[in-house]
Amino acid sequence: MSADYLLIFTRYPRPGRSKTRLIGELGPEGAAWLQRRLTERVVDEAKRLAAQYPVQIQVHFYDGDEEQLSDWLGPLVYRPQVEGDLGRKMGAAMRGAIEEMGTAPGSVVLIGSDIPQIDVSLLRQAFRTLAWNEVVLGPSRDGGYYLVGLTAAVGPRVLPLLFDEMRWSTETVLYETLGRLGANGCSVQLLPTLRDIDRPEDLALIKELGLL
Q1: Among the listed residues 178, 198, 201, 180, the one whose alpha carbon sits nearest the alpha carbon of residue 190
Q2: Would you call 74 exposed, middle or buried from its count of C-beta atoms within 10 A (0-12, 13-18, 19+)?
Q3: Number of domains making up the chain
Q4: Cα–Cα distance between 5 and 15 in angstroms, integer?
Q5: Which sequence ranges form a coiled-coil region, renumbered to this chain (predicted)?
Q6: How many whole angstroms separate alpha carbon 39 and alpha carbon 167?
Q7: pLDDT digits (tens, 9 = 90+) for 65-79
Q8: How far apart are the first and last CA of the chain?
Q9: What's the CA gap between 201 and 48, in Å, rounded?
Q10: For residues 212 and 34, is the Cβ–Cβ distance under 8 A?
Q11: What is the CATH number of the domain that holds 35?
Q12: Among residues 190, 180, 182, which one has the least CA distance to residue 145?
């Protein structure tokens, strides 16, 4: 029997420490509220997926504890993010999920919590894509990606290509990632390009979606 995992990366919405680039526009409380709302939206879509599709949801959190996260988001599996850069955090989370699978075939998909257009249809598409490809990526408009997934079988070979010595938070993350994967013969499929909510210019999308 296969075992698929959906990992959600988020942080506890603490005023002054959440969505700091938006504090100038929204204030500390408003930025934390937006972090809360975006995470709840993504978790709701993940729960909808789990009601239709056999997937295990894990919330990997920063700046909070398991009790706070559980009180906020409900009874899910919670894991604290490891220390280090984004690549180390994501790599550790995906390796942990693959280890939990054991010998069962399956896939792991990891998403951020600041993409309001992630929905159950897109999540289903990500897992279905991995039936025919080794890696799936969801490009974001800032040059990075909002979703990364892979089959458990290729984890040992592909995880270092994805996460080791990457120049995070630059406009070339997706480009460099695709270059590494292509140079190593990995089959990759891209999902639709979406916008993450991180800067003041991104707030127009939030208003358009009725979230602000």
Answers
A1: 178
A2: exposed
A3: 1
A4: 30
A5: none
A6: 25
A7: 999 999 999 999 999
A8: 43
A9: 30
A10: yes
A11: 3.90.550.10
A12: 190
What b-and-e string marks burial along 94-110, b requiring 16 or more CB atoms within 10 Å of the CB?
A: bebbbebbeeeebbbbb
| Tokens read off for 204 | 């127009």
Contact 25, 200 (CB under 8 A): yes
How do residues 133-185 score in pLDDT, each as one tens digit?
A: 999 999 999 999 999 999 999 999 999 999 999 999 999 999 999 999 999 99
CA 141, 84, 177 angle in degrees (round to 5)? Answer: 40
Give the residue from 36, 35, 33, 58 showing the smallest Cα distance to 47: 58
- Label each residue of the chain as H, E or C: CCCEEEEEEEECCCCCCCCHHHHHHHHHHHHHHHHHHHHHHHHHHHHHHHHHCCEEEEEEEECCCHHHHHHHHCCCEEEECCCCCHHHHHHHHHHHHHHHHCCCCCEEEEECCCCCCCCHHHHHHHHHHCCCCCEEEEEECCCCEEEEEEEHHHHHHHHHHHHCCCCCCCCCHHHHHHHHHHHCCCCEEECCCECCCCCHHHHHHHHHCCCC
Which residues span the domain enclosing 70?
4-208
Length of the chain in terms of residues written: 212
